[in-house]
Design brief:
The complex is a heterodimer of chains A (206) and B (137). Chain A is mostly helical. Chain A has helices at 11-18, 22-43, 49-65, 77-99, 103-110, 112-115, 122-138, 141-151, 157-166, 174-195, 200-204. The longest helix of chain A is centred in the middle third of the chain and has 23 residues, at 77-99. Chain B contains 7 helices and no strands. Chain B has helices at 7-18, 25-36, 40-47, 51-58, 68-78, 84-120, 123-136. In chain B, 74% of the residues lie in helices and 0% in strands. By secondary structure, chain B is mainly α. Chain B is globular, with a radius of gyration of 23 Å. In chain B, helix 1 (7-18) crosses helix 4 (51-58). The N and C termini of chain B lie far apart (65 Å). The chains are: A mainly alpha (206), B mainly alpha (137). At the A-B interface, helix 2 and helix 3 of A face helix 1 and helix 5 of B.
Chain lengths: 206, 137
């Protein structure tokens, strides 16, 4: 294996990582996650930084969960993680490219199920409610609160900033953080709707 | 391009993210809070841990099943809990709740599956059932 630009875990740490030792896993995450975050942000300047951080977190969570799949003698852990990261970021890039045009449209539609429920038939309404109820299990806590407010038609920036503050999320640029969180939420909704065989457009009533 | 986030902020965000995911301590502690009807703050006080370390604790991987108590204690020590035993007890309790929940869920899935089957199997299919089973042998 070639020399790496990243600080690497010790062989003992890696053996314990593969064995699922929680302290070793935490130690490896603490060592590698900030380094890979910086690397990814520097290598993908066209992608939103918070999306990159979120994707890095996702691949670390998957790798921690499936720790036994990594084989230390085949590749460095950083090489393995970067390979996973590149696949995810390529998907993210495609998603962003195809979705950026209709974000405003979907944000508007998201308010429909609450505000206009009298005009839709019962099976459709039940499907929508079941979908949004299931969604809450798959979203992070601050995203659940965002979804609730968005479905109620809340427009005030302050209301969304309050959610970010309550969940200790970054608020140095509130406008940007709120917009990005909404975009990420809609992207997640679409992805999960597609996986369940629905079109987000249908669920939102457009 | 560099991030405005420093290492601490990146790790803090990671622990909050991991706490919501399968295979991390946060999910179990949340289940306990809901079962015991206690707040986040009460649980934090019970373990004797500051806010920052409590966030880290929730983002720690779960103890391994084959050395559950030992791992739980090591996690408690790594996160500087003043009462590691309270955390170990909490994890043992959460594990037993999880087992019961899993048994209940398996039982209800079994009942639902068989009720569905009984309601929709046609009579002729039921008559053929023993022949089909023999054919598989």
């Amino acid at each position: 294996m070639t020399e790496s630009v990243f600080d690497q875990p010790t062989p003992e740490q890696l053996d314990d990582f593969v064995a699922g030792d929680p302290i070793a896993i935490d130690g490896v995450v603490r060592l590698l996650l900030p380094q890979l975050c910086r690397w990814a942000i520097a290598h993908y300047p066209n992608l939103p930084e918070d999306e990159i951080r979120s994707t890095v977190n996702l691949i670390f969570a998957e790798t921690c969960l499936n720790h036994a799949r990594y084989t230390p003698h085949k590749s460095k852990l950083t090489t393995y993680l970067i390979w996973l990261l590149k696949l995810r970021l390529a998907d993210l890039y495609k998603d962003i490219k195809s979705e950026s045009s209709d974000f405003a449209h979907h944000e508007k539609l998201l308010q429909t199920p609450y505000n206009d429920s009298s005009t839709i038939d019962t099976p459709t309404r039940l499907t929508r409610e079941a979908f949004f109820q299931d969604m809450t299990l798959l979203l992070d806590a601050h995203e659940q609160d965002f979804l609730e407010l968005m479905r109620k038609g809340e427009k005030s920036l302050q209301a969304f900033v309050a959610i970010l503050v309550r969940h200790s999320r970054p608020t140095s640029n509130p406008d940007h953080e709120v917009k990005n969180t909404k975009e990420r939420l809609i992207r997640k909704l679409r992805h999960i709707a597609n996986e369940q065989g629905y079109s987000l457009q249908d669920l939102l009533g457009g | 391009m560099t991030t405005n986030f420093n290492d601490d902020a990146i790790l803090n965000e990671w622990y909050q993210y991991a706490a919501e995911k399968e295979a991390f301590v946060g999910i179990w502690l949340r289940m306990l809070r809901e079962r015991q009807k206690i707040t986040h703050e009460q649980q934090q006080r019970d373990f004797g841990v500051n806010g920052q370390e409590f966030i880290r604790l929730q983002g720690m991987p779960l103890p391994r099943p084959n050395q559950f108590t030992r791992d739980a204690r090591r996690i408690a020590e790594a996160c500087h809990l003043t009462d590691p035993s309270a955390f170990v007890q909490a994890m043992l309790l959460a594990r037993s709740f999880g087992r019961n929940q899993s048994q209940e869920s398996t039982a209800s899935q079994f009942v639902a599956r068989h009720s569905y089957q009984a309601a929709y199997d046609a009579d002729e299919d039921l008559d053929k059932l023993s022949d089909e089973n023999e054919g598989e042998k």
